[in-house]
Amino acid sequence: MKHGRKPTVAQKKIIRSIKASGGNLDPAKWLIVKNTSSEMVIVNRASGRQRTIKKAPPKGQVENVKISITNKGAKVNGSENRYN
Question: What is the reported pTM?
Fold first, then answer.
């Protein structure tokens, strides 16, 4: 198992917001193993139990959305993009 690192203030806020049986998690009892933009993996200091926390995307940012814009009358494969 990988060694964890102490959580930062922002990471402590995320850990504290997780609801567990009997209340919220205590950041002092958890270490950060992996921290990406989409998830955070934490491990308990005493038991070694590992948990994965899914992060929400930042406000104003949408993940995995494909946008396709089509113009009526525009040629897709041609070199011209004129409207009718």
Answer: 0.64
